[in-house]
Structure formats: structure tokens, C-alpha cells
Amino acid sequence: MEPWSRSAADLGRAIGAGTVDPVALCEAMLERIEGHEHGARVYARLMPARARAEARAAAARARGGARRGPLDGVPVSWKDLFDTAGTGTEAGSRLLAGRVPEADAEVVARGARAGWVALGKTHLSELAFSGLGLNPSTATPPGAHDAGLLPGGSSSGAAASVAWGLAPVAVGSDTGGSIRLPAAWNDLVGFKPGWGRVPGEGAVPLCETLDCAGPLARTVEDCALVHAVLAGEKPTALEGASLEGARIMVLEGMPFEGIEEAPAAAFEAALERLAAAGAEVVRRAPPQPAEADAMSGTIYAGEAWAIWGDLIERNPGVMFEQIEARMRGGEGLSAREHIGAWRRLRALRAGWREETAGFDAVATPTSPILPPRAEGLEGEAYRRANLLALRNTRIGNLLDCCGVSLPAGAASCGLQMLAPGGAEGRLLRLAAAAKAALG
């Protein structure tokens, strides 16, 4: 099996067994990226000197029996909003062109200490403020099933790097669904921890009260191993994970409004497989998600404009107009409106925890729509598609959940499961059992 077809954990085990050399693996991945027809659409920039140095160090540790962890020597791609010392970090925006940080983001530093080999920086939606992955300012990565389909965002290049075999695993970020949505549209596993579980220092911000880093991979095991390093925790043990006796609440109502036929059918078929594996599936429609979503513009745009408004005003016409328009949604918001929305959101979060306390997870389709094409996606059509694509995943961010998206059994269709922030280990075990049941 070619190395780009193997999971990160499998490659890590092979390095430990001495059957895969980290240096040869690194060279094979760099060569594949540089020669790939979509390499430049996936990676904003490679880091070959750093990758080779890290691979040589990993190989020496492997020979000396001093590996630092299960992914020591495994190549990883990084979304281009995590600072990398001496290498540009521009967050998909010409506003930040030429920005070269002096130090690694904390999560990048943790990856380096764990022995990961940093291949390069992947493209993303501009300033991470779109779920579609369309970025005419830098590049729009290709969708997994059709290079003309949008890959989902904002971790668009992160998803494409794994889906196209240009990295075994990727690190992205999720503020409203930016890991889980592209994972769903590219048939990957995407994991978002609860807010605050992973440090944000050195990551270009969108909404610091909601931003969080997490993995996109082929397997739940890979996500668990990557998350453990990012969060500074021991990896969740997935052995023996089972759906027997698990209680899963299907969130009725809003997640199914405007849903397309394929995601709806894939979701229902996935639920049947989970039930057949022993899960109890209960359907409920508590009110908190719809009310929280109605305030999302105030919360997201208000904070994003506070962070980026001055720079945007100093550089008129530089941004992709659709992203700038979203940012400007926060331009006229008052502190009273923004603080009031957060006060109400905290009450909704408390109510949501009470409503879902008797369940192991809440399930929805990851996205109610399939990936669209970029052609003709302008104005109101862009706005509608973007808001709809992220609607179900936003629930997890607004209501302070950890979340995972699993392939639901049909192309570009995902099954999302949410649990309270802090229950990451429990959710990963449930996801591992669900992935096994889904096939």
C-alpha cells in the first residue's frame, strides 16, 4: 500500500516496527505534493527544509528506541492560520501577504515536540470566515469527488490534503464548523474539541471566544492521537468501544430545514446502522439551537469586525467581497448588542446541557446540502449556501459542544455527533464504535 493511502496511526506503527523510514516517507510525500496536479491548490506553501530536518530527527529516535509518541515521524499538514517560525502565515488573505511569524503557534510547537513532520501550510477560506472553501484571493482547493466542487471550509486545504493523499493527517480549526463540514464533504473524519481544550496562542483569530483547533483524518484513531497532542492529554483508549446501550438524541426541526435528498437519506440509513449495533435512538426538538443560531450573526460578525475591521478599512478592495461583507455585518453592532447576545447564549447553553444530559450524543446531518460548484455562486446565492452549509455544525460551537463528523455512507454526506465540551474522550469512543458500525 502506498504511504499516502495509509492512516497516520498505521504509518506510526510501521515507523516503530522499522518497516517505514521517516526520511523516505517525508521525501515520498514532498515529491507527491510537488508533482500532483492539485498540489498548488492544496498547499499555500511547503516547508521542505523543516520537514526533512524533522524527519531525520525522527528516524534517529526510531533507531535509538526513543520515539516520542505514536505519530513520531508521521507527516502532518497545517492550516495556514497557525504560525510557523520563519514561514509565512497569511490565513488565506492578501491583507496578511508577507506576514512571517517569528515563533510557532503553541499547537505547532506541541506537534514538533511529539515528533510530527510538518509538510507545509494548507489553503483556507479567507480569514477562516466561510464554510464553502471558495477563495479567489489565494486558491480554492479541489473537492474529493470532483475537483470542480467546493471542498468546504474554512479548513478546505486541510481536508483536501488528506482526501487527495497529500498528507496522512491535517490540523485545521473550527469556529462554526470549519473542521466538520469539509470533513463531511470529503468523506473524512473531523473532530472539534470543546472550546478551551486546545491552546489558541499563535493562531490567526476569527472569533477567539469560539475558535478551536482539531484534526481531519481518515480514522477516528488518527483524530484521537492528534487531539491528545494538541490538548496535552493522554490519547483516548478506543479499544472495546461499543454502541450497545448508547443513547443518541436526533435533533429534530432546524437541522432538517431545506435539507437535500442525499444527506437526508444517508443520515437516516446511518441511524439504522447505529440502532442495529445497539444504540437507542430518540428524536427530540429542544428550542435552544434555533434561538442560538438566530444570534449567530451578532456573535460571529461582531467579534470578527472588532478584530479585523481596522485592517479592512485601511485596505479597501483587497478582500474577497463576500468575506468582507460578512465581516461588515458586525460594523454597526454595539457593545450592548454583543454582550447581550453572549449573556443570552450562556443561558441557552445551560438549558441545552439540561435537555441533553440523559444522552451520550446528539446527532444531526453534518451538512444539509452537498458541495456546490463555484460557478454562479455569487451574491445572495453565495450567502445562502454558506449559511446553510454551516447551520448544523454551528450548533456545536454556539452551545459549547465537542463534535465529530463521520462519513455517513454516501459521497459527501456526514453524520455529526455532539457532546458537551469536556466529554471529548467519551465522544471519541462513541465515534469509534459508530465508525465501525457505519463501515
From TrEMBL:
<dbReference type="InterPro" id="IPR036928">
    <property type="entry name" value="AS_sf"/>
</dbReference>
<dbReference type="InterPro" id="IPR000120">
    <property type="entry name" value="Amidase"/>
</dbReference>
<dbReference type="InterPro" id="IPR023631">
    <property type="entry name" value="Amidase_dom"/>
</dbReference>
<feature type="domain" description="Amidase">
    <location>
        <begin position="25"/>
        <end position="428"/>
    </location>
</feature>
<dbReference type="Pfam" id="PF01425">
    <property type="entry name" value="Amidase"/>
</dbReference>
<keyword id="KW-0808">Transferase</keyword>
<dbReference type="InterPro" id="IPR020556">
    <property type="entry name" value="Amidase_CS"/>
</dbReference>
<protein>
    <submittedName>
        <fullName>Aspartyl-tRNA(Asn)/glutamyl-tRNA(Gln) amidotransferase subunit A</fullName>
    </submittedName>
</protein>
<dbReference type="GO" id="GO:0016740">
    <property type="term" value="F:transferase activity"/>
</dbReference>
